[in-house]
## 1
Amino acid sequence: MRSRPIGFLLATLAGAVLALGGTSAASASPPTAPAATASEDVGTADACYTWGGTLREGSSGEAVRQLQIRVAGYPGAGNQIAIDGAFGPATRAAVTRFQSAYGLAADGIAGPATFNKIYQLQDNDCTPVNFTYAELNRCNSDWSGGKVSAATARANALVTMWKLQAMRHALGDRPITVNGGFRSVSCNSAVGGAANSRHMYGHAADLGAGSQGFCGLAQAARNHGFTEILGPGYPGHNDHTHVAGGSGRFWSAPSCGI
C-alpha cells in the first residue's frame, strides 16, 4: 500500500485534535508542500545542471546547448553537431543515437528518460563520469596561455570529454587512456607541437593504446564528432592516436586504413 502524503496525515491529526476541543501547531500553521517543478519530473539531478522540461526540434536556449554538449559524441559518421542552443535536425539525430545507444525509446525528443541517463553519466562538475579536467590539461592549472581564452579552452575540453565518453561506450565501455589535452602556446612549443595545433584550443586529446589499440581508437573516432584524427602511419603518431574537434576535417592514420 502506498503511504499517505505527510500533508494528509498532518491535516487528519489536526482535525482529530480540534474535534476534541484542543489546538495544535499543525492546525494553526499547516505546512505547505513545495509545488512540483518541471525538474522534479525528470528525477534527481546532481549539482551540475538540471533540465526543466522536454526538449524537441524547434526548442532553443541554454537547456538545448547543455544537451548538445552531452550528445556531441553522437553526430553520425564523419559529422559533428554545433553547440549553438538551437535544436535542429542534427541535434534530433544525435539525441536519437544517444537514446538508441543506451536502450531508450529512440524518438529524438529529450525528456525524463534521456535526462535521467545523462544525470547517471555526469559528475557534479559536468564532466562525464569516466573523464576529468585533469586528464585533459597536463599543462597548467588555469587553462591560460592558449590560442583562446581560458574559459573557451575549458569549454572545448568539456565537449571533447563527452565525445570520448560516447566513443568509450561504443567500444564496450572499456577505459580510454588520455595522455594529454590542452596546451598553452609555451607547452605546445616545448613538446614540438604544430604551430596550429588544436591542443591550444582545448579541442584535442592524445590517446594511449589501451585495450582497443591505436587503430581501434582511430577508427571509432570517425563516428563520434572528431574532425581531426591522426594515428599510426602519420608522421609522429605511431605511438598515440590524436583526436580533435574544430572546423574542417583532416583524418590520417594510413596504417589503420584512414
Note: Residues 84 and 201 are 18 Å apart (CA to CA).
## 2
Amino acid sequence: MTGADYLLPLRTKLRSMRTESFGADPAGARMERIRRSPHFVDGSFQNPVGARIRPSGSTLEFAKIYFHKEQRARRMPTGTVPVHATTLADLAAPPASGLRLTWMGHSSVLAEIDGRRILFDPVWGERCSPFPFAGPKRLHPTPLPLAALGPVDVVVISHDHYDHLDLPTIRALAGTDTVFAVPLGVGAHLERWGVPAARMHELDWNETATVAGISLTATPARHFCGRGLRNGQHTLWASWVVAGPEHRIYHSGDTGYFPGFRDIGAEHGPFDATMIQIGAYSEYWPDIHMTPAEGMRAHLDLQGGSPHGVLLPIHWGTFNLAPHAWAEPGEWTKDAGEDAGQAVAFPRPGEPFEPAGSLPVEPWWRPLSATLAHPWRRTEEQAGPGPGPGPEAAARGDLDLAGER
C-alpha cells in the first residue's frame, strides 16, 4: 500500500477488497428492469409485509449466547452425520410415481418431476462464505460429487446469500447445458461467474418461465438479499412454484412467516410436496426465518388450510447459523407434524424418496444430539395454535450478522 492509498475513500478501498465470490452488482438494462419492478420502491426491493432484517437485541447478549462454550457444543452433532450411502445408485432409475425428492443438505434439493430434473439452491462448497478460510463450515459431506449428479434441466436459486448461492458450485454448473431460474437481479452474479445470459430466466415475483414443459414461477418471500458489507437490496429473493403436467412442488427459500402463503396456495396449489425452511431461526431475527411451528403453518396455508401432500424440512442440519441446538429443528418439526396430522419426510442427506410412496420418518438425528429441552412444547401448550413464538427480546439496537445467515 502506498501513501496515496490512505487518501482513497473507504468505499473504494472496500470495493477493491471484494473477491469474485462477492459477485456483481446489477447495472445497465438489468438495473433499469429492477427499477421498473413494482416491488422496488425508494431504491430497494421491499418485502410483501414489513420485516426487520437487522437482528434485534443487544450485541453483547447475543455474543454471550453464541460464543458460550457449552452453547456452541449444542449447535454441533455429537458424531458423524449419516449421509445416505447409495444416492447415485438410487437415482439411476426414474421415479415410479413421477416425483422424487433428494435432500442434499441445507436447502439443496434435487427434484425429479415428470421426467425433468430441477436442482434447488445447490451448495457443494465447504463453507457458506466469500472466503475459503472463514465462515460456517459443513457439518457433513455432500452425499455425492456434483459431477456425479448427472444432467440437470434447471437450476433454481432462491436468493443470493452464501448458503444458497455458492460460487464453486455455480462455476461447475456453468460448464454444463443447464438452464438457470433466478430472482430479478441475481443474474448479475451468475454472468460474472460464467453463466451466459441466454441460459438464464431472471424473474420478478409472480412471473413464470417454462423450460422443457415445466413451469417455474417466482413467488413472494419475506427475507432480504446481499453478499457484501453493504446491502443495497438490489437483488430479489423468492420462493418457487414448480409445476409439471402431473405434479406440483414448492420451495420456500428463506422466509419469515407471512399471510402470502395462503395466496400462493390459492393460486398455485395444492402441492404434492413442499420444501420448507425450518432452521436458523432466532428470537433475534423473527421476521426473516421461520420456526418449525411457523413452517408447518406455512405448509398448511399453501395446502388450503388442511394437511395435504408431504412436507420436506430444509435449511437445517448442514451449517451452524443460529443459536438453537443442532437437532432442534428436526425434533420440533416432528412434533409439529404429529400435532397437525401432516405427513413429514425426514430423509438423511442424500436419501431419495417419493412423496407418493413410503416416507423416511426415522429421527436419525437423535443419536447425534445433545439433550434437548423441548421449550416449544411448553410454548405451544401455553399459546395454543398459531405461527409459533415471537421475539422475546425487545429491540435494543442493531446486530448486523447478515453474512452469517
Note: The chain has eleven helices and 15 strands.
## 3
Amino acid sequence: MFHVEREIGGSAALPTELEPPAAAATVFGDRLDIARRYCAALATAGVERGLIGPREVPRLWDRHILNCAVVAELMPEGATVVDIGSGAGLPGIPLAIARPDLRITLVEPLLRRTVFLSEFIEAAGLDITVVRGRAEQSGVMKEAGGADIVTSRAVAPLAKLAQWSLPLLRDHGHMLALKGVSAAEELERDGESLAQAGAGKFEVLECGVGVLETPTVVISVERLPRAERAPRRRAEKEGSRRSGRSEGGVLRRGVERRRAGGK
C-alpha cells in the first residue's frame, strides 16, 4: 500500500509512483495541487472505504482523474452539471477542479460514499453540492433538476442512463456518458430507446485529443423539447435507413466545434 498523507483533502505528499504526469499541469493549471490532494485521498481513504480498488491506485491519474477532467471541454462557461452515481466523485470532482466556473452537484445513494465526498469537498474548499439519493427519486429531481448537463461514468447501459439522466435536464440540455471503445456499438444498440425517451442529436465524441495518450470517449445526447420529439424520431429513423445507421462513428469534429465556440 502506498503511504500518503492521511487527512482527506490535506496537503498531499505523494510518492513518486503517484506524482502527476505532465498532462495534469495542462488540464488543471494553477489548481494542480487540489488535483494532487484528490489523488492522495483516492489512494488512501478511497481504497480503505472500498471506493477504489487497490489495483487502480497506480493508474489513478491516467485512467480516472485526467480521463474525467478533459470532458470539461464539452461544457460551456458557468454550466450546471449533475453527476449521477458519482461514487468516489468521478467525473464530478475532477471537473470541478479543472473548471471552477461549473456549478456541480454529485448524486450518490450510498452513505459511505457521500461521507467521503463531503469530507474531501470541505477539506479542499471546493464549491460542490452532494445529494444523497438515486437520480430517479423525486427528491433528487426536485433538488438537482433543470441541469444543463448530466454526466455519468460506469453507471449503467445507455438506455437505462437515459431514463435517469434526461428527466434531470432542461430542454436542449445534454447527457454526457463516459464510455469506452464500444461506445459506437452501444449507441447503435440503444438508439431507438434513446429516441423513445425523448433524446436526439446523438454523437460519439473524443475529449483530450492531443493532451491524453488515450482520449476519453463520450456519448453526447440532447434532451429534446416535447414538441420536437415525434417529428425528430421519424426523421432519425428514415435517416438511419438511408445511411445504413451512419450514426455512432467517433465525431471528433464535434469537440472541435465546441472549442471554437468557447469552453
Note: DSSP finds ten helices and seven strands in the chain.
## 4
Amino acid sequence: MADHQEATVTLPSDPVSVSSARRYVARTLAEWGLSEDTELADTIRLIISELATNAVQHTFGQSPTFTVDLRLERDEELRLGVTDSHPRWPQKLPAAVRQDNGRGMVIIRALAKEYGGRLTVVPTAEGGKTVWIELPWAVPVQG
C-alpha cells in the first residue's frame, strides 16, 4: 500500500447526503483494507454520520455543500475530516443542558478517544472549518 492515500467527496448540504457520505467512506475504507463488518468500521460510519449531520443541520443553509476527506498515512493513522463553509464552530453543551440533540460532538470525541484518537477543529482559508478525527490505523496490509 502507498505511504499516503487520500479520498475526497463534496456533497450538497442536504439530509440525504449524510447516508451518501457514510457509504462513500465505507467503500473507500473497504478498498484500503478495512472490513465493513468490524467494530472499527461501525464506529467510523457513526462518526462520519454525526459530522455530516452537523454540517447539514448546524450551518443554517449558509454552507451549500460539505466535503468529506479521508487520509491514510503510512498505514499508521487515518484522518477523517468534514469541512463546511459556515464560520460557527461546534459547541459543546454543558452536561446540565437537557435537550434531544446537540450531543454529537460529545459522542464523536468519546469514540475517537476510545480508539486512541483525537478530535480537532481547524479554520479554513475561506472562513469555514474542518472537524478532523485522527485514529490509529491497525488494519493489516492487503496483499
Note: The chain is about 30% helix and 30% strand.
